[in-house]
Amino acid sequence: MWVDGHGSAGKFVSSLPKFAPLPVSSPTSAPRGRRPGVAAHLQASAANTRCTEQRLLNGMNGGPGAISLRSASMPGCHDPQRNRLLAALSPRERERIYPQLQLVEMPLGGVLYESDDVLRHAYFPTDSIVSVLYVLADGASTELLAVGNEGLIGIALFMGGETTPSRAIVQSAGHAYRLVGQLLKDEFHRDGPMRPLLLRYTQALITQMAQTAVCNRHHTVDQQLCRWLLLSLDRLSSNELIVTQERIANMLGVRREGVTEAACRLDKLGVIRNARGRISILNRSKLENLCCECYAVVKKEADRLLPPALPR
Fold first, then answer.
1. β-pair partners for 149
2. Of 271, 206, 275, which is closest to residue 244 (Cα–Cα)?
3. How far apart are CA 152 and CA 130, in angstroms?
4. Are the beta carbons of 34 and 52 closer than 8 angstroms?
5. 3-class secondary structure for 234-281?
6. 27-to-21, 39, 68, 81, 255 alpha-carbon distances in Å
7. Which of 12, 90, 146, 217 sits a CA distance of 20 to 30 A from 115?
8. What is the C-alpha radius of gyration for the chain, rounded to an integer number of angstroms?
9. Parts of the chain with a pLDDT under 50
10. pLDDT at residue number 77
11. Cβ–Cβ contacts within 10 Å for residue 138, how many?
12. How far is 201 from 168, CA to CA, in rounded Å?
């Protein structure tokens, strides 16, 4: 069990890492400017020092710890506009929403919510990928859909359901912007530009879920693996995936041995380099040729319904 910065609880599998909101965006009552204790964090996180200090020194329109329009657009920093939905918001929507966003780390294997949990937050990934799974009573699981920087986790909030029978788990580590669920619902019910954007995104998710069901039923493990790799690759800035074959097998709902054999065949064809816990894509065009039509269907519909993809 973990408790976030707003006092709401969530669940984690005992062996999984816990989420840790980045200090730069944690809510606080400290005065404007640099907060006590940040210097120690900056020394321990040299890679983020310049970005974090710039955030803290710039004016924070939403109060201490919030993401302001000014700091959010700085190059080289974590940026809400790295998420396609957040980037597509109107100027007025950005003024209302950006100051309320909280940057959080998304550790590999971290669980955002379990089946039947009441959703309290929406997550907008920037450089992470989240898998939504259905877990059977015997522990077996199958991926229903994956979400990266093209979308958000938490559609049940604005669709009115509040809960979902699925489980959301981080497939690829990175970061996301978290928004209190009530704020997302309020924005949706304003009947502004964000409402049709979220509805189009939901339609794209329905297409992905439907095509995943078709692919899992009618296509080979090799083709399913190609589809899964391509969809993951579209959401990452590199050609390398940090993932085990066992995790892929859990996502596809197949035996690990089947994934191992399929990955070995792709490796021999020079399409991927398959190492322990790591897969590098060497020939994307050949990977697309080996894939079934399901990847193209999902990508075409997403490109039609969603804002343009971000440059890699």
1. none
2. 275
3. 9
4. no
5. HCCCCCEECCCHHHHHHHHCCCHHHHHHHHHHHHHCCCEEEECCEEEE
6. 10, 17, 13, 21, 44
7. 217
8. 20
9. 1-76
10. 66
11. 6
12. 17
Q: Which residues are within 8 A (CB) of 174 and not within 5 positions of it... i.e. 6 or more apart?
A: 106, 125, 126, 127, 128, 129
Domain boundaries, the chain: 2-192, 220-291
- Could you tell me the CA-to-CA distances from 111 to 12, 115, 168, 279 in Å, in that order? 6, 11, 6, 23
What is the predicted pLDDT for the residue at 183? 96
Sequence-distant (≥ 6) Cβ neighbours of residue 236 within 8 angstroms:
127, 129, 148, 172
Q: Is 208 exposed, middle or buried (0-12, 13-18, 19+ CB in 10 A)?
A: buried
Amino acid identity, residue 233? Answer: L
Top-tier CATH class for 220-291: mainly alpha
The answer to whether the beta carbons of residues 233 and 162 sit under 8 Å apart is no
Give tens-digit pLDDT for 198-252: 999 999 999 999 999 999 999 999 999 999 999 999 999 889 998 889 989 988 9
Class of domain 2-192: mainly beta
